[in-house]
Amino acid sequence: MNLLFVFADELRAQAVACNANRDVKTPVLDRLAAEGVVFDHAYSTTPVCTPVRGSLLTGCWPRTHGAATNDLPVNHEGPTLARSLSAAGYRCGYVGKWHLGGLPRDRFTPPGPGRLGFDDFWASWECSHAYMHPRWHEDTPEVHAAPGRYEPEVQTDLALGWLERLTAARTAEPFCLFVSYGPPHEPYLPAAPGREDLYDPVGLTLPPNVPAELASAERADLANYYGHTTAIDEQLGRLVGYLEDHDLVEDTLVVFSSDHGTMLGSHGLHGKQLPYEESIAIPLVMRGGPALGPAGRRDQLLIGMVDLAPTLLGLLGLSADKRMQGRDLSGYVADPALPERPSEVGLENALVVDRSRSKDLRPWWGVRTDRYTYARHFEAPWLLFDNHADPFQLVNLVDDPRLVELRAELDTTVYRTFGRVGEPIAPEDEYAILCGVDQLWEEKKIAAGWQ
Asked: Buried b vs exposed e over 238-271: b needs ≥16 C-beta within 10 Å?
């Protein structure tokens, strides 16, 4: 069974049509959802690019994989999904944004352990959001570029080129291909080519947690955000079309997801690194193979990004590396009726960076259960939402005297969840020391002018 994993950057779960969004057009993803499984409770366990990408590819929490915040390098020696697949005979390729090599953001990741097992094909750039000036490295420091073309289109060309070479070589080995698109991560302008006027801002629906004074500006951003989302869906269609044209549908597990969401004005906030639903909830759709169980269903399984590597290995019939800290949930995917399903997903943002730093966001740890979102700072509880009664998280119940026992129970769950995997709940500088990244953290703070 092959694996095609396609993911966008900053695409929140609420922004795709198969998740009940009537404004946006994502017909390819809708078809995959109808033919596969949609996970309604999929979450970015550390909702900021570098650490959650590290968790996706290693199955470990940031303290273990080392990329504990944006622009810190991932540990080269730990377990990874691609290494497990390579050991099982897979040919592994990676295309698109990487963001796991450290600074500078135009750095070249040479062949070797820094590629985490993606050794058969590499067409990647560390980090850039210049969508009309795509650049990438392959196996030398030479910079490849396609100025004036839309980056996701170029990346899809590169991915299809590799698949075509595999097909022409009539290789018997299965493949694992990761395609990492930058949009719809801001900047939202320039708009996706051909999608400039696809969405009329005036007609777009905003959630009720967006303040009225921000509505006009947020609708304008949302129109372009949706334009990029639809453009990504079109590129997904090209990849899925290749599978269909080459009789690979039955032999390929297709996964579509995102690294995290974005606020887009909800609660008057922008960006990510927050425990709100707009920041943590991600689309997750899978199609292909008997291991997914009944097709055409919505699954309420609580699954975090850190769980994906061991779960995907399980769905492919392989055992997860015992060093992975995420949960292999493949049994629950295959059998939705299996009892004792997970009751929570751990969430954390232990090192605050980028715009969140300038807005005085403090580190936090939390859990998302089927019903509740709870988050605490190191010093004290912070947020408690009843998502069944209050899906837009308008009322913070953390100080409600009637919920003292619930808050204590959720607080205990947070410490138990992170204690189980050795992920520390500690002040930033202490956390950085425990992660072994204190020197890099100090350098990042100085470079950004935070101290």
From this structure: ebbebbeeeebeeebbbbbbbbbbbbbbbbebbb
Exposure on the CB side of residue 198, measured as CA atoms within 13 A: 21
- Our CA angle for 394, 400, 401, nearest 5°, is 170
- Domains of the chain, CATH where assigned: 2-334 (3.40.720.10), 345-448 (3.30.1120.10)
- CA-nearest of 82, 90, 34, 86 to 56 is 82
Nearest to 367 by CA among 427, 419, 411: 411
Say how far apart CA 34 and CA 298 lie, in whole Å: 9
Handedness of CA 249, 250, 251, 257 (dihedral sign): positive
Within 13 A of 350's CA, how many CA atoms are on the CB side? 30
Contact 175, 90 (CB under 8 A): yes
> Which DSSP category does 194 fall into?
T
Residue 451 has pLDDT above 70, yes or no: no
Q: Rounded to whole angstroms, what are the CA distances from 437 to 71, 126, 162, 353?
A: 11, 19, 36, 14
Catalytic residue IDs:
49, 99
Helix (H, G, I), strand (E, B) or coil at 124: strand
Query: Span 418-435, mean pLDDT?
Result: 93
Query: Does 450 have pLDDT greater than 80?
Result: no
pLDDT for residue 442: 87
Give the global pTM: 0.97
For the chain, the straight-line distance linking the first and the last C-alpha, in angstroms and rounded, comes to 50
Could you read off the pLDDT of 227-263 as tens digits, one per residue? 999 999 999 999 999 999 999 999 999 999 999 999 9
Measuring CA to CA, which residue among 185, 189, 180 is closest to residue 156?
Answer: 180
Residue 430 CA to residue 451 CA, distance in Å, equals 16
Q: For residue 71, give the amino acid letter.
A: D
> How far is residue 418's CA from residue 228's CA, in Å, rounded to a whole number?
35
**What residue spans of 421-437 are helical by DSSP H?**
428-435
Tokens of 442: 């100090």
